Amino acid sequence: MRGLHSTLAVDSGITSHAVAAALGHQSFKTTAESYAQPDAVASAQQKRVLGVLRRSQIGPPGPC
């Protein structure tokens, strides 16, 4: 949960100092090395988009 919290906080624009403080760390270095993985959010978003694109290539969309 700490990794998810810090990753989503960093991705949403919360300052690194605020994220580190919320986790009880004196510096963001500890947070970054142990918890925050900003690339994880972008990677998950890319995978989701690719999945949607692949499904749309399978066949024509059904009736609305």
Provide a compact summary of the structure.
With 64 residues, this protein is mostly helical. The protein has helices at residues 2-11, 16-22, 28-34, 38-58.
Task: Give your account of this protein's structure.
By secondary structure, the chain is mostly helical. The chain has one domain. It is built from four helices and no strands. Helix 2 crosses helix 3. The chain is elongated and about 55 Å long. 14% of the residues are buried.
Write the layout of secondary structure elements.
Blueprint (H helix, E strand, L loop, with lengths): L1 H10 L4 H7 L5 H7 L3 H21 L6
Helix pairs in contact: 2-3
Structural class by secondary-structure content: mainly alpha
Number of domains: 1
Relative strand content: under 5%
Mean pLDDT: 76
- Individual helix count: 4
Shape label: elongated
What is the first-to-last residue Cα distance?
A: 39 Å
The major β-sheet equals: none
Q: What is the helix/strand order?
A: HHHH
Total DSSP E strands = 0
- Poorly predicted runs are none
From the alpha-carbon coordinates, what is the Rg to the nearest angstrom? 17 Å
- Determine the fraction of residues in helical runs and give it as a percent range: over 70%
Keywords:
64 residues, mainly alpha, 4 helices, elongated
